[in-house]
Amino acid sequence: MALALSALTSVQAQEAPAQEGLKPVKYVFLFIGDGMSSPQRQMCDNYLQAIGQPGLLMNSFPVKSPTTTWSANKLVTDSAASGTAIACGEKTNNGRIGMDASGTRNLESSAYVAKKTGKKVGILTSVTLNHATPSAFYGHQDDRGKYYLLGLDLITSGFDFFGGGAIDKHGDKRYKDNIGDVYKNTLKAGKDFKGDVYDLAKGEGYKVIHDQDGILNLKPEDGKVIACQKEGALPYAINHEGGLTLDQYLAKAIEMLDGDDGFFIMCEGGKIDWVGHANDCGSVLNEAIALDKAVKVAVAFYEKHPEETLIIVTGDHETGGLTLGFAGEGIKANFQLLQNQTTSRDRFRDEIYRIEHKKDLTFDEVKPIIEKAFGFKFDGPADDPMTVTEEELKLMLEGFAKDKKDYHNKALAPVVFKVFDKKVGLTWTSGSHTALPVITSAVGVNADFFKGNLDNTDISKKVKAILQAK
Ligand SMILES: [Zn+2]
Q1: For residue 270, how far is its CA from the centre of ligand 1 (angstroms)?
Q2: Ligand 1 centroid, distance to 278 Cα (angstroms)
Q3: What residue spans define the domains of the chain?
Q4: If you measure from the C-alpha of residue 131 to the centroid of ligand 1, how many angstroms do you get, rounded to a whole number?
């Protein structure tokens, strides 16, 4: 495998692009959809157009380039290796953050290059701030599971704005019982423990702020800021749980970081991947649209500063092996049906699970949950696409029967999702990442520099060259 991959890499490797002709750029936005490749982006357009709306703004950018994603040691990358490639411009092994394949040499990210050139740096994500993708821009660890150490790397980066999900504290003393359990490779004992990450950040001059109003009221005079949830990732967009959204964090970051030397902002839609692993189409749709809302904030800024701004949107890899079109249904597509899904797969499964331990539970008692989550009609007219057919009902009843035997089977929820996928006209082929290339889009100053067939390492190389253009 390693041989084959290096051969591929040498075929694909491109000469470092000529740097003459690059214009200096004051403002650089780099958006990364974790688990977002062309099917995810195309599904959103199919849906939005089916309900009479324009497609994703990111899909309308003038430059759209296929981008390969493999890592140094695997055809299928993880977010650590791909994040490192996008941030630092070098292939590394899966699991490494900001380090080379051997795990011994630190790599420099475009964010550090931006900082050196005097720009302010913002790192934003809808998942936790020390998760693989964001940490690839500031961290150096041989294992992505070292969350606590990545939290320390975050603080020592000196970057100006961190926003979105919390700093995950696995590795923190209070979570000691989780260490080596939930994350097998996580920091083992307390020897590297230096204290609470947020307290340490405050000691290094960061203003750490978790409450919504406090974040919205931040002013540039507040200096270096960690503005994030106290715990966990941002809520799933589909569940509408409230709280600040990625686009709101981005608007605040722009306000905080704008100045004479400009800024570099990396903004990740991290949960597209999480719900891709769960093969949860409605949630993928909502997470990708949530990222596009943040892209809209950047585009509005670009329209005010068209001669000084560059926006790049890419993905780190595909997740779920999503395929659009379902041959069994005569390849008909009803993407507008996606609007019927009102809850994430996790929550739907939990709702069913909550009642399934009831001994004499009947399927009729489960039906309202299914109807509410997907708009299915168990007694609807035959020409209504949401009416559950005999065959579909049979599949659901089989799943239900398995759960009746032992509710730990959790067999019903995936069946319901499969039926929904079929009605919409899509299929999943994996619960993991795939090697499908992603799309890199660009608009603004030097956008043409991103034209052509790209590898994920090219993004960092090109961003670094642009940041250093005089
Ligand atoms: Zn993933």
Answers
A1: 9
A2: 10
A3: 2-321+437-467, 334-424
A4: 11
CA of 67 to the centre of ligand 1 (A): 18
Q: What is the residue-wise DSSP string for 31-45?
A: EEETT--HHHHHHHH
Query: pLDDT digit string (tens) for 137-184?
Result: 999 999 888 888 899 999 999 999 999 999 987 655 444 444 433 344
* 165 Cα to the center of ligand 1, angstroms: 17
Q: If we measure between CA atoms, which residue out of 148, 137, 242, 256 comes closest to residue 194?
A: 148
What's the 132 CA to ligand 1 centre distance in angstroms? 10
- Which pLDDT does position 21 carry in this prediction? 86
Q: How far is the CA of 432 from the centre of ligand 1 (A)?
A: 7
**Which candidate, 277, 206, 268, 275, places its Cα nearest to that of 237?**
275
Asked whether residue 192 carries a pLDDT value surpassing 80, the answer given is no
> How would you class 258 by CB atoms within 10 Å of its CB: exposed for 0-12, middle for 13-18, buried for 19 or more?
middle
Q: Which CATH class is domain 2-321+437-467?
A: alpha beta
- Residue 9 pLDDT: 43
Cα(396) to centroid of ligand 1, in Å?
28
pLDDT tens-digit series, residues 389-417: 999 999 999 999 999 888 888 899 999 99
- pLDDT exceeds 60 at position 339: yes
Which residues are CB-neighbours of 445 under 8 A, at least 6 positions away? 23, 25, 307, 308, 309, 310
Judge contact between 33 and 455, C-beta under 8 A.
no
Interval between CA 283 and ligand 1 midpoint (Å): 15
| 40 CA distance to ligand 1 middle (Å) | 14
pLDDT, one tens digit per residue, over 73-107 is 999 999 999 999 999 999 999 999 999 999 999 99
